[in-house]
Amino acid sequence: MTHAGAPASPQGEHLLLQGVTDYAIYLLDASGTILSWNTGGERIKGYTGSEVIGRHFSCFYTPEEIQHGVPEHALAIASQEGRYETEGWRVRKDGSRFRAHIVIDAIYRDGGLVGFAKVTRDITEHYQAAAQRRQAEQALAQAQKIAAVGQLTLGIAHDFNNLLAVITASLDLLPAAEGRRRQMLVDAARQAAARGARLTRQMLAFARGQSLEPELHDVNALIGSAAEVYRRAGGPITQCVFDLAEADTRVMVDAEQLEAALVNLVANARDAMEQPGTIRIATRITRPDPALHPGAVAGRDYLYVSVADDGRGMEEHVRQRAMEPFFTTKDVGRGSGLGLSQVFGFASQSGGFAFIESAPGEGTCVTMAIPAGEAADA
Ligand SMILES: Nc1ncnc2c1ncn2[C@@H]1O[C@H](COP(=O)(O)OP(=O)(O)OP(=O)(O)O)[C@@H](O)[C@H]1O
Ligand SMILES: [Mg+2]
């Protein structure tokens, strides 16, 4: 299209524009009246030249757009800036709509505006293909969501199994137990059953699409109230000790998730024990170095909740992969590889991070770091 000056050969240009069928190319005077028409215009919009020449170009716009003054706005922009470009729905003669890509160029002569050249391209097919692609992408995202729910279900089944193991272990020991010990076993089984019931409620809440809001919990108190569950989960040859910070250990967490994470860690410690040993559950407030812990926010205090054992420890390649979902070194049927991924998921969903310190023969310490100081913010 020419911007300035009259075409060298008006007749030649006319023939050239006539031949273009993929684009509607036409000229408007300064007020928007149609001065010329081409084959592309006929093809795309369905009007012949005699039907539109002399009419105002707003006849191609939808009634809503005319009401909102869109055609005038387009010309105003083109005359101010020299060019106006847009994409939108336009109307054909038969009333059907098509997706249009539109460019309006202002034509100046001797410094004054004489009219506009308007080029309209029908991009309906392209637009529909893009819409179909978007739909396909949405369907894929939905499928991925379903897969994630499947993984979550596995995780919950896994947590449930841990609780059943506590109940079974307690029941096994019950016939031979007496007095205070008997009472402790009964309490442990009852607490595990109650946690199982809460887990089922959580699952139902999730299925109904309710999200589980973390709440302010005193982690020391949570650990204290379930101490017997951890002792049972630790099995007969381990001793469970608690080393709880003398500090404000209130943080925003989901209590069931934290307890499930601790049971998972204690179960791992138990499995790593070849001879009688100690499992140490500890809490402390720390300000981690972001250089060592990329998940940490500089200058922020975290509550470290850790489970340490003096078991066999991990080879470096195991330590690096241990938190991956389904990663396990245990025999089929013994481990699903979901314990540490639940721990990791819990810590990151709580706004924190988790890490493993371990070496062969040196035992293992897994730490969940949860942002502290929320009690003051809350
Ligand atoms: N305390 C630990 N000491 C030594 N190795 C550990 C310890 N905790 C985890 N591991 C290693 O990390 C792997 C992954 O642990 P994770 O808890 O995710 O799965 P798992 O214990 O194998 O199976 P699941 O917990 O699903 O029954 C374990 O198979 C084990 O090799
Ligand atoms: Mg495990």
Tell me the domain tally: 2
| Radius of gyration, in angstroms, nearest whole number | 36 Å
What sort of overall outline do the alpha carbons produce when their principal axes are compared?
A: elongated
- CATH topology grouping of the largest domain: Heat Shock Protein 90
By DSSP, the count of extended strands is 11
Tell me the CATH superfamily of the largest domain: Histidine kinase-like ATPase, C-terminal domain
For the sheet with most strands, the description reads: 5 strands, mixed
Strand order of the largest sheet: 6-8-9-11-10
- Tally of alpha and pi helices: 13
Quaternary status: single chain
- Residues in helices, as a percent range: 40-55%
The secondary structure category is alpha+beta
CATH architecture of the largest domain: 2-Layer Sandwich
Protein name: histidine kinase
Domain Histidine kinase: 155-374
Catalytic activity: ATP + protein L-histidine = ADP + protein N-phospho-L-histidine
EC number: 2.7.13.3
Structure description:
Residues 84-135 form the PAC domain. It catalyses: ATP + protein L-histidine = ADP + protein N-phospho-L-histidine. Its EC number is 2.7.13.3. One of its GO terms (molecular function) is phosphorelay sensor kinase activity. This is histidine kinase. Mean pLDDT is 87; it is low at 1-8. The protein has two domains: 10-122, PAS domain (Beta-Lactamase, 2-Layer Sandwich); 133-377, Histidine kinase-like ATPase, C-terminal domain (Heat Shock Protein 90, 2-Layer Sandwich), CATH 3.30.565. The protein is elongated, with a radius of gyration of 36 Å. The protein has helices at 10-19, 39-45, 49-52, 63-67, 70-81, 124-173, 179-207, 219-225, 227-233, 255-271, 316-321, 339-349, 374-377, and strands at residues 23-29, 83-91, 97-109, 112-122, 215-218, 238-243, 250-253, 277-286, 302-309, 353-358, 364-371. The strands form three sheets. Strands 6-8-9-11-10 form a five-stranded mixed β-sheet. Strands 1-4-3-2 form a four-stranded antiparallel β-sheet, with helices on both faces. A two-stranded antiparallel sheet has the order 5-7. It has 378 residues and is of the alpha+beta class. It is built from 13 helices and eleven strands. A hairpin with a 5-residue loop joins strand 10 and strand 11. The structure holds adenosine-5'-triphosphate and magnesium ion (MG). Residues 158, 264, 268-269, 272, 309, 311-314, 318, 322, 327-330, 335-341, 364 line the site of adenosine-5'-triphosphate (ATP).
